[in-house]
Amino acid sequence: MRSKLFVPGTRPELFAKALAGEAEAISFDLEDAVPESGKGAAREHVAAFVRGELARGSRKLLIVRVNAPDTPHFAADIEALADAGLDLINLPKVESPESVRSAVALIAAAEHAALAETENRLLLTIETPRGLRDAAAIAAADARVAGLQLGLADLFEPYDIARNDAANVHAALFALRIAAAEAGVFAYDAAFADVADAQGYAAEAAMARRLGFLGKTCIHPRQVALANAAFEPDEAEVAHARRVVAFAQTAAGQGQGAFVVDGRMIDRPFLKRAEAIVAAAAARAATP
To answer: Rounded to whole angstroms, what are the CA distances from 5 to 105, 116, 150, 208?
Structure first.
């Protein structure tokens, strides 16, 4: 998941186009990109699309950023998506382990009511001082948590912390990465608001790569190539990915949804990432 492209839930005409692009994951947004008056319509658009043949036939990771658990929209979002077979549900503005457990209880109830075949995994966005302080405990709050994502705009802007100071960015990235490492989940880098600043985006992505982040969020298609390049796997990563894909076939035959390869726990997001690495390596090898 080198690149994760946000697509506003209010723009259904962009859904198929995003799916056909180079981003490895598509994150349909029901939160910040959607005004209060459009929440219901956006939810309907996204729920219908992710259940459709085009989305289900894609090899991309499908993610939905729902509204925050403390908003009146959260329960309706979860009810609409509980049985949609998403790869990840992205919970924004998470600040405590208790909020994660409460959200999971609601999600589990919605899955039960909808007769969902699988449990939804969670990507938690850390974007407040309290959230960053307690990030490790938040990530460990429930087994459904797959990863932590950093939200630098909400973390920096209200407190006059300069985003153009690399030391500030590094401090936040490092804190989140260590928290994720403690909890045994992946870390994912933040969005970058200045779409025209390719150099700034690439610099942040390179920093995140060096810190062991899985990839970087994109808010515009032109950022996707930058993220993919920054997180391009090396030969050792390709070899590991091939072992993951090979072992997944055996694990599937044994009914295992998660398994260990090279000492690392592997589940669907990691498997899809491995499949993408293998496919990209094969495509490069076949290109004259």
So the answer is: 28, 26, 15, 17
